[in-house]
Amino acid sequence: MVLKYFVVIIVFLLSTCVDVQNTLPLPPSNEDSFLVDFLGNSISSSSLRTPYVVVLGIAQDAGFPQIGCEKEQCKRYWQGEVGPRHASSIALVDPSNQSTWIFDATPDIKYQLQALKHQVPGYSLEGIFLTHAHIGHYTGLMQLGHEAMGAKEVPVFAMPKMANFLKSNGPWSQLVNYRNIILNGLQADRPTFLTSELSVTPFLVPHRDEYSETVGYKIQHGETSLLYIPDINKWEVWERAIEEEILKVDYALLDGTFYDSNELPGRDMSEIPHPFIQESIHRFRKLSSVEKQKIIFTHFNHTNPLILDSPERDYVKSLGYRVAEEGSVIIL
Predict the structure, then answer these.
(1) Which are the contacts of 49, defined by CB distance < 8 A and separation ≥ 6?
(2) What is the pTM of this model?
(3) Are 104 and 129 in contact (CB under 8 A)?
(4) Distances (CA, A) of 263 to 207, 231, 241, 268, 301
C-alpha cells in the first residue's frame, strides 16, 4: 500500500498573544489556515473532498495534566509553559456530505467537539463510536444529558456489553431513557457502512474488561484504511499478530500509554497492562521503513515523555515511527 498524506494543521493566528493554557486541541478554521504534508506541500483545508481523520486527543483517560500531579511535566503546565493534552479521541470527517463521527466520548468532549466545529463549521455530528467502558472513553456522554446539552437522539455505536452497561446503569441509562442518545449495536468484525465507500469495523482486543468488552476500529475508505487501537493489554496476548494487521492498512494509531516499566514508581504496572513504547519499538524493529511510518503512537499517560517535546520523542521519531499530535490530520 502507498502511504498517503499525514498532515498537520498550521494556522497563522491574527493575534500575537496566545494563552497556551486555554488553547483548544484544534485551531479555529479561517481563510489563513492550510495543511502541510511531509514533503512541505500546502493543501487548502477547504479544498479537501475525501474523508480524513483528525486527532482530537492524545492523552490517557485522565488527560494532561492529571489531578494532583506534581511531576516535572505537570509543573510545566501549572507554570504556564505548555498547554493541555486532551484524552485520546479521533474524528472521522466526510466533506462529501458534511458529516463527522467521533471515536470515544472523553471527559474533554466539549472542547473536542467545539474545536471540530471551528474546523468544519456547518458539519453535523452523525455518531459516536465507543471502544470500551473506562473513564476516558465514554464518560463524556454525560455532556449530552439533561443537565448539560440536552442532545436529541445522538447515535452511539457500541458493542453488546458496552450497550448493556449504558442501558442498565445510571446515570447513563437516563441518556437512553430521555433519548439523548440512541444506541446502535455493533458486532465484532462486521462493518458499519457510513456511506457506500466509507465503513467502520470493530474488532475485539484484550484489555481490563471490568464493565464491557474492548474494541479497536478499522476505518476504511475505498482502498485506504486506518487501524485505531488506543487500548490493549499487550501485543503478545492478542490472538492476532499486530505486525500482520499493520501490513494490511495504511495507518495504525496504536496504544503508547507508557514509555517503559519504570514510569510509575510505587505502582504495580502489571495491574494496568499496556504495551510499553520500548516493547513496541523492539517488537517492530524488523518492519520495513515503509511499515514503520504507518505507526502513530497515541494515548499517552501524563508521565510518558512522548506527550511533550522530549529526547525520547525525538528518539522514537528517529526510528521512523510517528507520534500523534492534537490537530494532526490523516487523509484517507
Answers:
(1) 95, 96
(2) 0.89
(3) yes
(4) 20, 17, 26, 11, 9
Q: Which three cell numbers stand for residue 282?
A: 523492539
140-151: string of b/e by CB count within 10 Å (b at 16+)? bbbbbbeeeeeb
* Strand 154-158 with 181-185, pairing: parallel
Contacts 24+ apart (CB under 8 A), 193-198: 194/92, 194/94, 194/99, 194/101, 194/126, 195/94, 195/96, 195/97, 197/221, 197/222, 198/51, 198/92, 198/94
pLDDT tens digits, 256-279: 999 998 888 878 877 888 999 999
Radius of gyration of the chain (CA): 19
Q: In the structure grid, which three cell numbers stand for residue 141, read together?
A: 456522554
Q: What is the pLDDT of residues 73-112, one digit of tens each?
A: 999 999 999 999 999 999 999 999 999 999 999 999 999 9
Q: How many C-beta atoms lie closer than 10 Å to residue 203's C-beta?
A: 16
Query: What are the cell numbers at 252?
Result: 495504525
Distances in Å between the Cα of 106 and the Cα atoms of 42, 94, 97, 136, 273 are 31, 21, 25, 5, 20
